[in-house]
Each structure stands twice: as structure tokens, then as C-alpha cells.
Amino acid sequence: MMMDPNQKPAGLETQAEPQQVEEGRVTPPSDLSPRRWWGLLRRTGVQVFEKRLLGEAAAVAFYALLTVFPALAALIWLCGTFVDPAAATQGLRDTASGLLPAGAAEVAGELLGRLADLQGGGFGKATVAAVVGAALWGAVAAAAQLFGALNVAYGELESRSLLRLCGEALLFAVGAAAFIVVVLAVILLPARLADEAGAEGMEQVLLHLARWPVLLAAVALGLALTYRHGPSRRCPQWQWVSWGGAFGAVAWLLSSVAFSLYVSRSGGYDRLYGSLGAVVALMVWAWLSSAAVLIGAALNAELERPPTD
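Structure for YihY/virulence factor BrkB family protein, as requested:
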């Protein structure tokens, strides 16, 4: 028996469509009772395992890691055209050590050191073209993989053409890179300027602590934008993506802090993997981050599902 090409596979037909949300058939998240929220979180956990979102997160993390080296090389080359390359590299190292878990920061520092040595010899036109091309290809591949994983989380089929998908993935990658640069500047510049101005005591502590709420809010906003425009479906209203964005941001921050504490205090990866311990730690952190993103998407999908009781 031939399947209707417009028919969704089994297990996806129960997912609420965006227009069902707009018609008011689903209770707004702000009106849900604590009991309904508990059931919602429980169903979200079930969907994470039934849809194998942790495996999808591993695929997203793999493509994202492929983009790290050429993206950092392109960033150092771009910064080196405006400021001293050594200063740019040191600034990126400080950023990585301040925001990434221990193992991830170590790998990022090593990559930046090698790239700084390469920059010291000068980037030729062919090298610049290769680096930028590799960064763009990796970013498009990672964004497309993320879109596919979000489709799985939302129970949607990809309906965009290959050309449109690649175009949207490229726009997403460029926009995400610009968003990250702006957020890092907003987070790090005040504390850096305060240090240079000789700020001490409570003022310095408050400036360093204030970056975490700003980072959390920025991640939540970025995730909400991703959930709204990434999957192959009509864009929902903001209230249907903001809750998953906030949940994913908190899950990402908590998992990153917990993983950083584990790596820094146990040294388990170095004992087991030796010189590859830092690389494995970076891979695990990337997987945890991708999992937090997809779990937030699964929560949004459950929020849009019509009530069954």
C-alpha cells in the first residue's frame, strides 16, 4: 500500500498545529495550574526519550564542533584586521575561560594558541578563502541539523526546499554569530572596563555577578528566536516559545555549571582518556548544550498540544 505523501508518520499526527494554538484550543502557559505543569513536564520527559532527542542532540553537537576551528580562525582574522591579533586572541581566551567549563575552555585555549601562531605568519588570500568557506559550510550544516532536530521535537516534517533550507540555515548561522558577539561584548566589556579603571570591592563583585543574569536572559531570547523560526512550520506567537526558551536556558546553565564542577574537581576525563580528556569534555559539554536546546523545544511542543483530559 502506498502512503499519501502529505500524511505524517505514525506518532506525529497528535502534535498540535500552530493554528490550533491561535484558535485558543490550548490553555495559555501562564494559566496552567501546578498540577498541569507537573503533567506537562512529565510528558516532556517521555517525548525526549520516545523521539530520541538525546541522539539528535549528539548529531547537532557533532556538526557544531566541526565549525569551531574554522569559525575561531575567521574570528581571529577578522579581529586582527582591526586590533592587535595577540590582544584579540588573549581576549578570546579570557572569554572562553570565563564562560566555558574547564575542559571546554582548555581545548578552546589550545585552538586559539595555534590559530594565533598561524595568524603570526599572516593569512594569505587562499587561506582566508578556505577558512571563511569552511566556517560557512560548517555553520550551514550545523544549522540545518539543528532545524531537523527541532522538526523531530515538534513532530513536523520538513517542507522547505533544499535551496530555501540552506538559505535559512545560512541566515540563521550569520545572525547567531552576530548575536553571540554582541552578547559577549555586553557581558564582558563592563567588567573589563571596571578592572582597567581599578574598581574594587563590592562594585567589582557586582559587575562580575551581573553578567550571569544577562547571559541567561540572552540565551533564553536566542532560544525563543530559534524555536520560532527554526522548525518547518508557521511562526507561533511569542508566548508559545518563550517558556521553552527560558527552560532551555536554565537547563543549559545548570548543566554547564554542574559539568564544570565535575570536570574541575574529579579529573575523571583526564584519568580515563589521558591527553584526549579535554577534547572529550568539550564534546560532552556540546552534547549537554544541544540536549538542553531540544528539551526546551519538546516542552514548547507539549505546551501546544491540545489537552487530553
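DSSP finds eleven helices and no strands in the chain.
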